[in-house]
Structure formats: C-alpha cells, structure tokens
Amino acid sequence: MLDRRCDSVEKALEGIKDGSRIMVSGFGEAGRPNMLIKGLIDSGVKDIELVSNNAGAGYEGLAMLFRHKMVRKLYCSFPRGSMGAEVKKWVEEGGLEIEVMPQGTLAERIRAAGCGIPAFYTPTAYGTKLAEGKETRMFDGVGHVLETALKADVALVKAYKADRWGNLTYLNLARNFAPLMAMAATTSIVEADEIVELGALEPNIIVTPGICVDRLVTSRRIAENEWGTAA
Amino acid sequence: MLDRRCDSVEKALEGIKDGSRIMVSGFGEAGRPNMLIKGLIDSGVKDIELVSNNAGAGYEGLAMLFRHKMVRKLYCSFPRGSMGAEVKKWVEEGGLEIEVMPQGTLAERIRAAGCGIPAFYTPTAYGTKLAEGKETRMFDGVGHVLETALKADVALVKAYKADRWGNLTYLNLARNFAPLMAMAATTSIVEADEIVELGALEPNIIVTPGICVDRLVTSRRIAENEWGTAA
Amino acid sequence: MTPLTREGIAARLAQDISDGWHVNLGIGMPEQVANYLPEGRDILLHSENGILGMGPTPPEGQEDETLVNAGKKPITMLPGASIFDHALSFGLVRGGHLQLCVLGAYQVAENGDIANWSREDNDPIASVGGAMDLAVGAQRIWVTMQHNDKSGAPRILEHCTYPLTGVGCVKRIYTDLAVIDVTPEGFLVTEIIDGMTPKELQDRSGARLRFADGVGKLLDQTRAA
Amino acid sequence: MTPLTREGIAARLAQDISDGWHVNLGIGMPEQVANYLPEGRDILLHSENGILGMGPTPPEGQEDETLVNAGKKPITMLPGASIFDHALSFGLVRGGHLQLCVLGAYQVAENGDIANWSREDNDPIASVGGAMDLAVGAQRIWVTMQHNDKSGAPRILEHCTYPLTGVGCVKRIYTDLAVIDVTPEGFLVTEIIDGMTPKELQDRSGARLRFADGVGKLLDQTRAA
C-alpha cells in the first residue's frame, strides 16, 4: 500500500545530511512550512544550501535557520527585508554566501530541474550585472542568458489538502514555489493543513500529483515561544 | 468592460490569414475544438501550418483540414493513425510537409513559446535520427539536444467552463495541450462547453487565466453530416 | 507651480490604463496606482507571486495569510481572479502577456534603460525580486518616480550610473513634474505641471528633452478618482 | 517447451512491479500488463496525455470521451487519480519521476539501445509519440517483445539496425522465451522457459548471452492473477 504519511516530524525529516541543498516553499509567510522548518532546526543539520525566494524575517520561521547559523549559502531573489542589516553582516563576516537571481529565473530554474531540462535561455537579466560571466546568445535579435536547472536534495513544502498518495492542493497565494520545489528535489517532504481520504480530492483540481511527494505530515502551527532564541 | 465572448464562430475566427500557423488542442478526440475546426474549414483559409499532436482520423474534425487540402505543414509527434496511408500519400505527392518530433518535446516547445523561453536543452532524442542536424551539448555527461520555442499565430482550444474574462477549466484528459497552446499563440480562440458568470469559477481551480485567451464562444457538437465530403 | 504628490503621480498614470489591460504594479509608488483606477474599466492586477485579478486591501481584521501581494501586503481577490504557481506567473511575465508593468526607478536613460534595484556595485544583499523579469517581459514599462533625487540630482539621464535592471525597455515616465515618452529620438515631454517652463524642466533633467507640439498640463487627478 | 503468449509475457513482467511504483505502459503488449498487476500493491499507471492513477477499461456504454489513454482507448480513474497538462506530464517523464516504463520494441542491443518506432529510414509518416521521452526519462525501461520476429530473425542484437528510440536505456527484456537483464557486461539471462536449453536460446539470439547462476524457470503467470 502506498502511504506517504509519517508518524512524526522527526521521521519525515530523517536522513537529511549536513551540507544538503534544501528548498523551502513560501513567499513571505504564505506557504511557509513552519513546522518542518522548526523540525529542521531541532535536527541540528549544518551547512545548508538554502533555496528560498527570500531570507525570512523576525525571530521565527525561516529567519531562525540563519540566526542559528545553519545556512552556508542562499539562492534567492530578495535577500533584503526587515532582517537585511543582519543578513548583510553575516555575508560580510564570511559565514553566508548569497547567489541572487531574478525571481522568474529562480522559478524557472527550479521548474527545469523537476522537468529534466538541464538549461534554458531567458531574456531576463541580459545586459545587467546579474548576467556577468554567463553565456549569452541572440535569438531574433534579442539578447538571452543561459541558465541552468537548480535542483535540491530536499524540498520542504506547505500544502493545503493532501491524500496518502501525496496528491496536493494549495490555498491561494500559498501555492507560489511549492509545486515547482516538490518536483525538483530528490526527497520532497510536505506538511499539509489536512490529510483527506484517497479519492476525496477531485482529480482535476490536484496541483501536485503524489509522484512528486515522498513524505507527508499534518501541519501544526508553531507558537512564537517555540522558536527559542538565537543570535 | 473586458468581455471576450463573441456572437458567432465567424467573428471568433475573423482575420485568420492564409499561411498562418495554427495550433489545435486535443489528443485523439479528447479536447478537440470541433466547432472551431468546422468554422476554419468554412472560412476557406489556405496553406495552414498546423500544430497538433496527430493528424486526426476519419471524415470529421481535424482530419477534414487535410482532406480539404488546407494544411501545408504539420508539426506533430504521431502522423500515423487510421488515416496513415492517406497522410503518406499526401506527403509523397508533395502537398504536405511533416515535422515529426517527440511528444514531450512538442509539448515543451509550445510551453516555452508561451513562457518567453526561446530555447532549451532536452535529453530526449539525443543519439537518434530526430536529433540529426541539431545542436547538441553534454550536461553531467549526458547528451542533450537544443530545441526552440514553437509559437503560433492562432490557437484553437477546447475548454470545459469559462467566464467572460477568458478564465478556463478543462475536463479530465481533455486538458492535454490546451493550456500550453492558449498561451503560445498571438490570438487564442476558445470554445467552452459552458460560459459561467464572472466569479463562478473558484480562483484556485482555474487552469488557464483569461490573460491567455482572446476570443470565446460556447461550444456546439458538430454532427457527422455537417462535415461535408472531401478527398 | 505645484509638483504632484506621490499619489498625484500614481493617479495621473492610472488614467492611461485601458479597459481590459493586465497590469503589474511594482512595490512602492506604483502600488498606489491601484487606488486611482478609472471607474468602469476592467483592469486586472497581476502579482508575481501568482494571481491575476487582485482586489483592494481587506478591512482590518479580515487579512488572510494566503492572500498577499508581491510586497507581502494583504490583498483580496476580485470575482474572476485566478491563482497560479510561480513558473506560470513568470511565464506570463516573460512571455509578453502583460499589457503594462509600472516600475519605480532610481534612474531612466534616454534609450529606455532603467536602474531600480541597486545603488552600489558591491551591495552583498542587492535584491532584484521580479523587476528584471518584468522589465524584459511586459509589453510596455512605465515608470513612476520623483523627477529629482533628494539632493536635487536628476534621475532622467543620458546614461544610467547605477546597475541596470533592464536595457531599453522604458516607454514612458511619470514624475512629479512631467509626463515623458521615451522615443527612438530620446525623451519627449507630453505634459508638464502648470507654471513650469520647458527651460526649468530641462534644467532639472540630465538629458536633452524635446517637447511635443501642444504640451499638455500635468494635472492632479487624485480628486477626480 | 511452450513459449509464453503475449498475455503470458505481460503477466510475468507484472510480478516484478513493486508496491508504490508509478508506471507508464506503452501502447500494445505493454498495455496488457495492467490486467495482471499483483493484488495488494498500489501501482499507479501514468499516461502521457496527462493522468496518474489510470483505472481499467470502463464497462461498454460507460465510455467518456474525456477519459482516454495514450492509445486513445477508454479508461477510468482510480480514487487518488490526478490530471495534468502535457507539459507537466512530460516533465514527470523527462524529470525521472516514473519508476518504470514498459515499452514494446523491434530490437534491443546489448548496450541497452532500443529501436521501437520506425523500421525504415525514410518513412514519411514515422511516428514517435512519447517513446523517446520515456526512453530517456523513466528510471528504468523494461521491454516486452517476441524473442524473434515473424521471419524468425533475432531481435536481441549486438547493434540495432532500425532507427534508435533511445541510447543505452533498456534495463530488462521479457520475451516469450526468457527474461534477460541488460548489464554493463551485456545480456544476462535470468529465466528461461521450461525445456529450452541455453544453447537453443543462444541460437535464437543475435548477441552473446550469459546465463545467471541458477537460471530460473520462466512461468506462465496468467492464471495466477
């Protein structure tokens, strides 16, 4: 019987190695898998290469991965934010490396990894400093940049409803990067608001087919005081 | 007021020029916009470059575009079929040119056109005769072929439900190429089983946002005897 | 001679958006355009994080954490809104489907170059977001900005000095002083605030301006809306 | 000595599909594998036209024109089925998400090359469908075919003579006479029908066969199912 449900967050996150590349879904707080992020912090994994549109904010959620110095490298489009000054300091101190890229390029690179496309040309960033050192090529007289697939060892993804095969739906703008990341990682781990009976999700409204998902847990909201303290 | 509905099939198809490249959604009969195909035949447009996974069958629907000698070139993955012998004859007589490509490459080339990606690398067909003459490149020791976006002047698309802004849903396996084609053509023309009030489609289940659609008509089943006769 | 307020710039630009357009409004001043869209037009707002048909800010207390815009501010959905993932969202952008994107800018050059994401070459947290995708992808880029920076330096230039966001993509600029088209022959002023002379505007600009026949008056439209 | 029927080949292969696998079955003999899937395993069938969780043929009169497989035959949906567009469908294929694809073949070479789409170099309507995508994309390619063609010529070869579908991708072959792994050292027979000697099988093959220690008996599993 195919059943991707796990009994605990610990089991869902089992086997994540130091140095792993980990994608985390979400745009701002919408679609952020906070329970899995908390589990990742508890696991003590180190030297993460994090793929996330931004770096988080405040003293909860994604931001705590940085405050606990768990992140070695960040692939993102928008490292600035309310935590900008601190992020800048961590980079200047040498503990954190950042690869900034346009948001659409980030999305398409992740999508490409999931779809078996190793590289593609995009007009985005041509002629700017984000294209420096990259291969370029003209198509129909317009400059384009060659971008490569961005895959990961692990994806942590927040979903709305799920079934035991791992079929997923998302709610509103919480969808954002989640379907792309679920498909682009070797091991995709999902927290869903609700796990429903097989067959309860209408086949036409499923956004991520279960084939993209490896492990599944029911989501729980992490309270402010559970995040602990860190730099 | 944004209202993409047209009063008639004639208006929906207005302005299609001889020599246009036209995409037609559908896989077998699932998702085939037969009312628009019939309208295209009635319009008498010539020298079409047709993009469709296959060539149709029998004496109705897509097949009639060929029987009426309206198609100059076909981009597809599977020209064989119940009409295979005739298709072969038309090619050998010189009236029809066929560019065969793998089905996934066809889909991805159309998707690329809609998404502003002029070219991408795929492992599909590497080392086969369908890659002959194409640019190739190794990624991680695996051979890949460079494929380019396939766009069109017009897309004829079948949908399930639509609203006046052109938001679309599809039913089951009738989805197939439709969302990709709607996005890849300069003018996308849709026949929908039902046109519902704005707001009646739940935002999370819309597959094609209205921005991809230009003209919209309510679908009507074309009876067998309406197709007329031709070679 | 009264320069437009930020709201005035946004309100003026809003008048030029046609019925049926799909529009992305950048973070900051461009967002305010949403408050001045002319009545009776269906204008669909796109946000990079995956929506078309974005509605106004919800009443306090009715915010939903799954309904936020690219600036992470709470939004609502209009009837007819649609939701999609980030790949499709930027497919729509890059694929040229949006009729308009309004961006803020530090600088615009006379060839249409725009600089709006970074003011230093080695900022370790320079943040581009979706600006470069929008710059190359939207059918037209309009810019809203103050005509001069806080020190009075011009932002309308022969060449941008800050790192570029996009090359040759800006079609029109709305400032507190003027509306300016970017044409193959350079900047063309089509509207100017009452009481300002062409020479005064030229003196506050860093590139040669041409003036359209019958330059119009740039009016405050905030009350009209 | 009774060679397996087409159904027998399909039934034998079906036994080797693990619980939880997502599987694409090619048109023709591979499709019949669906009729012999072992009880108690969740095996999700994929079809290129956009479904996972394909169910059996519907009863006559209950066909739905929106429910067809890649061979355009009527299907049903299992509880837990999901629908997606052609780009995502082939993204799943090309991206290596399917645990298995079963293809028919004209020829398989000892390096794993497969030829299954065209028997002449200049067929103007040579039709590839999704075979090349599946050949490069699935985690493993298993082939079902008759050991010899109608004229008795071998289809297991040192080199394919027909146009290739994929390079070096076949992992295992199920024929009416044997089950054969494709290994870095060439063909390795793991099962053979009762009463056939290794020499007889070798004589009907066009490349050198090796035989596993304790080669098993290839049994008819059609009744077991």
UniProtKB/TrEMBL annotation, chains A, B:
- The superkingdom listed in its UniProt entry is Bacteria
Organism encoding this protein: Pseudooceanicola pacificus
Organism placement in taxonomy: Bacteria, Pseudomonadati, Pseudomonadota, Alphaproteobacteria, Rhodobacterales
Q: Which GO terms describe its molecular function?
A: CoA-transferase activity
SMART domains under this entry? CoA_trans (SM00882)
Name of this chain's protein: 3-oxoacid CoA-transferase subunit A
Asked whether the keyword Transferase is assigned, the reply is yes
Membrane-spanning intervals of the chain: none
Keywords, A to Z, come to: Transferase
One Pfam entry for this protein is CoA_trans
UniProtKB/TrEMBL annotation, chains C, D:
Q: Which UniProt keywords apply?
A: Transferase
Which domain of life, per UniProt? Answer: Bacteria
One GO MF term attached to the UniProt entry: CoA-transferase activity
Q: Can the keyword Transferase be found in this entry's annotation?
A: yes
- By its UniProt entry, which InterPro entries does this protein fall under? 3-oxoacid_CoA-transf_B, CoA_trans_fam_I, CoA_transf_AS, NagB/RpiA_transferase-like
Q: Where are the transmembrane segments?
A: none
PANTHER family xref list: ACETATE COA-TRANSFERASE SUBUNIT ALPHA, KETOACID-COENZYME A TRANSFERASE
Q: Which family does it belong to?
A: Belongs to the 3-oxoacid CoA-transferase subunit B family.
Quote the protein name from its UniProt record. Answer: 3-oxoacid CoA-transferase subunit B
Q: Which organism is it from?
A: Pseudooceanicola pacificus
Biological classification of the source: Bacteria, Pseudomonadati, Pseudomonadota, Alphaproteobacteria, Rhodobacterales
